[in-house]
Amino acid sequence: MRKAAAAAVAAAAAVGVALLARRQMREAKRWGRADAVLRGLEERSAAPPARLRQVADAMAVEMHAGLASEGGSKLGMIISYVDSLPSGQEKGLFYALDLGGTNFRVLRVQLGGKEGRVVKQECDEISIPAHLMTGTSQELFDFIAAALAKFVASEGEDFHLLEGRQRELGFTFSFPVKQSSIASGTLIKWTKGFSIDETVGADVVAELSSALDRQGLDMKVTALVNDTIGTLAGGRYDDNDVVAAVILGTGTNAAYVERANAIPKWHGLLPKSGDMVINMEWGNFRSSHLPLTEFDQALDAESLNPGEQIYEKLISGMYLGEIVRRVLLKMTEEASLFGDDIPPKLKIPFILRTPHMSMMHHDTSADLRTVGAKLKDVLGVISLPFLPILALVSNIPFMVTLN
């Protein structure tokens, strides 16, 4: 009987070894398929110096074309009507409204001139409900004006207007606008997930001013600028040598100081400063030299604005998390990344946001606990057989941007 028992144990062990070996072979094949997706993505996303030089040269060509004529380039190269930037000697109470993505910010600042500089400032950030991003123009601007009115009502005694002055508001509007003066401009198109047709072609300053009137708020919009121009102005306030600014956030853009006599499409009198700030709107840049992958192409095709804002869709915070989700979905479909079943939430567009991806990217723990926690919280993933490879996937958009 002992021999029979020993034989049974040996047989069971043999079966166990065979099953383990078979499982290891199956896992190895799945690893191989997952790795193939990842390596293919890295190869197609490669941006060596030679390619980056080609991209830079192509952008320079588009810049010159955009300065020469309206509509002559993929880049807007929009004349901002800002011909002078802060000197650091400004005094008084000023308000600012920054609308540039899924959140907007309101700010008040007391400036004390060259000696006092920024005496005091306060700000607040408000999330825009998703339905307002695709609703009506009045609903959106009324929501913004109501939040601004509430913020003004909280103004403390440390802030004071110069005698005889009305409250002034600088409006940072981070979407393509065709300006006709420093305080007026018509919306060319929405980006970053907004889609309100009736606002396109309308003067956004007039839309905001009407909403302020409906709130009974005594405030004048004295300047309309893009967020990139606002960043440039802020940089110049602290350093007179600043000549360019770049935004890398929900969207992406750049602005710089151009010589006014180098802008062929400028037909007015040359400004006394001899300069003009140009809003490039480089999010719409596209070139055959850009490393577009199948994931970028699919994302663009399914977006609200197919064929537009290609550069922005490659590198901005609005889209990086979604690119990672699409990569994970393909690895799951082809290599059962999360087990035999595809997590239902993984099929939901934009459920994985760039902040989630960034947290995974910065996870240096040995067991990748942050990666695991985020996948569980966001995607409902419990089984993580291929957890180590996910850290590599979360790095991909950064490789595309920084290589």
In brief, what are we looking at here?
This protein is 43% helix and 18% strand. The chain contains 12 helices and 11 strands.
Please provide a written account of the structure.
The chain is an alpha+beta fold. Helix 1 runs parallel beside helix 12. The longest helix has 44 residues. It is globular and about 75 Å long. The termini are far apart. The N terminus and C terminus are likely disordered.
Largest beta sheet, briefly? Answer: 5 strands, mixed
Mean pLDDT across the residues is 86
Q: Which percent range describes the beta-strand content?
A: 15-25%
The helix count comes to 12
Oligomeric status of the shown chains?
single chain
- As a percent range, the share of helical residues equals 40-55%
Shape: globular
Strand order of the largest sheet: 4-3-2-5-8
Q: Ranges with pLDDT <50 over ≥5 residues?
A: 3-21, 397-403
Cα distance spanning the termini: 68 Å
Q: Which series of helices and strands comes N to C?
A: HHEEEHEHEEEHEHEEEHHHHHH
Structural class, by secondary structure, is alpha+beta
The radius of gyration is: 27 Å
**Strand element count:** 11
Enzyme class: transferase
Pfam families: Hexokinase_1 (PF00349), Hexokinase_2 (PF03727)
InterPro entries: ATPase_NBD, Hexokinase, Hexokinase_C, Hexokinase_N
GO molecular function: ATP binding; D-glucose binding; fructokinase activity; glucokinase activity
Supply database-style keywords.
single chain; about 400 residues; alpha+beta; 5-stranded mixed β-sheet; 12 helices; 11 strands; about 20% strand; disordered N terminus; disordered C terminus; Hexokinase_N; fructokinase activity; glucokinase activity; transmembrane helix
